[in-house]
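Aim 2, interim progress: modelling of the oxa(dethia)-CoA-bound target.
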Amino acid sequence: MGIKITGTGSYAPERILTNAELEKMVETSNDWIISRTGIRERRIAAPNEACSDMACKAATNALAMAGVAPKEIDLIIVASVTPDKHFPSTAAILQSKLDASNATCFDLQAACTGFLYSLECANALMANESNYRKALIIGVEKLSVLTDWQDRNTCVLFGDGAGAVVLEKRTGKKDIGGILASKLGTDGKYCDILQVEAGGSSMPATHETIDKRQHFIRMEGQEVFKLAVNAMSKACRDVLESASIRPEDVRWLIPHQANLRIIKAVGTKLGMREENVFVNLDKYGNTSAASVVIALDEIVRSSKVERGDYLLLTAFGSGLTWGATLLRW
Ligand code: UT7
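Predicted structure of the complex, ligand included:
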């Protein structure tokens, strides 16, 4: 039977942080940021705006597109590295804000690949005769709270935002859309090259960890860059092969929006034309688990996708984690 996406939604906070403003905060330049990353601006959530608030807005938009009421939803998965709290889950908090009281709710953490991991998880949970019939899958981040605004290596990269999809079981043979293939990976030996060191059980918060700024994102950028290009292009090739689809048949490659040079390198490795590779990181920067689903929503809402099109989603992040998912629209 399979499942398909029947609604998409996203939300970007109002506050825009430009490269020109960053030039006043750290030793950087608009030229460096654009030429090394492709990012021009990013959104920053308000101090009182939590991930569940952003997720609620994205989810409301997705539910409206799908024509599904919150009470019809029986599964909510929220992917994020910046949950509202250690516990309860952001998914549970969101359930209450949405009044989706019939949903089973949990969070999933796979960093920037979290949305693709959540899709795969929902796909498995909703398979065959399961009782899960309508699900909300969310990618949401408030990375501004994990960003060291004194570290030029990272503070120019990240942004806040949320994206959501409604998944439903396919109803009949005429329904061509759905998840066709998916490939996920993890390599924990690289867990130190992109991390937030303190604040968990291995290094609880102390005055010392705060003084040493260990509660912020640290990344070995070049190492991550190389691994990202290879892992995403291999995962994409694997899913295309398993579905017997050629790269030239794909209407949109929708890659994790971390760096324009990474995106272009993946497109080139796959042999895809530039006009089929979606880019919006100039407006949002890297929004981790939200990035692919915000991009998907933008494509859907600007009518850049038609029934029957193949969409190839791919992501990469801390863990290290990576994945690719092939959809037919
Ligand atoms: O979302 C999870 C996955 N994350 C990613 O995929 C990110 C992967 N990495 C990257 O996107 C890139 O590695 C970065 C954008 C983070 C960095 O670009 P890079 O071309 O790898 O630069 P680099 O780290 O090698 O730094 C080059 C130079 C250095 O100066 P020296 O040592 O050559 O004098 C840096 O100190 O650029 C300097 N630099 C900056 N200069 C101006 C680093 N950050 C900045 C900055 N402004 N913001």
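The chain has a mean pLDDT of 96. The pocket of oxa(dethia)-CoA is lined by residues 28, 32, 36-37, 112, 152-153, 156, 221-222, 224-225, 228, 258-259, 262, 286, 288, 316-317 (CB under 6 Å).
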